[in-house]
Amino acid sequence: MRLWSLHPRYLDRQGLTGGWREALLAQAVLAGRTKGYRAHPQLVRFRAHPDPAAAVGSFLLVLAEEASERGYRFDRTRIDRPGAPGLLIPVTDGQVDYERQHLLAKLHHRDPSRLATLSDVITPEVHPLFEVVPGPVEPWERPV
């Protein structure tokens, strides 16, 4: 499961569609509808939010908006709670840099044309749910 802190505009088709599926799974886990993935480290930051359902709903909504801009149709009715403006989860600048490097490596193999658009971006924009704060890679990250 990879719930990217980076803005979904940087993701290739596989990253965007995979992110949608994985965020729907995260939503199901947080709602108690599945037993799998309950201990997944990517869920730590959503569980730490005062309203995890709204946080994951906000995450999903931005993915759906990006998909619409690309001509994909993600079923927004699958979002339990679309969240509300102003929800923020902190993410460290170290985590953002780690994810940037991780995505660059994936794009190198999967989508070289998208890689070219991200290679020159030193400080990528993050998903609107996240607020960048100083710090190292997040403790919940499992480096690959």
Describe the structure.
- The chain is 46% helix and 6% strand.
- The protein contains five helices and two strands; from the N terminus they run αααβααβ.
- Strands 1-2 form a two-stranded parallel sheet.
- α4 (93-110) runs antiparallel to α5 (112-119).
Write the layout of secondary structure elements.
Layout: H1 13-30, H2 44-47, H3 52-69, E1 89-92, H4 93-110, H5 112-119, E2 130-133
Parallel strand pairs: 1-2
Helix pairs in contact: 1-3, 4-5
Structural class: mainly alpha
Number of helices: 5
**How many β-strand stretches?**
2
Biggest β-sheet description: 2 strands, parallel
Task: Output the strand order for the largest sheet.
Answer: 1-2
Distance from first to last alpha carbon: 12 Å
* SS strand fraction: 5-15%
Low-confidence stretches: none
How many separate structural domains?
Answer: 1
What's the order of the H and E elements? HHHEHHE
Which outline best applies?
A: globular
Residue share in helix: 40-55%
Q: Radius of gyration in whole Å, from Cα?
A: 14 Å
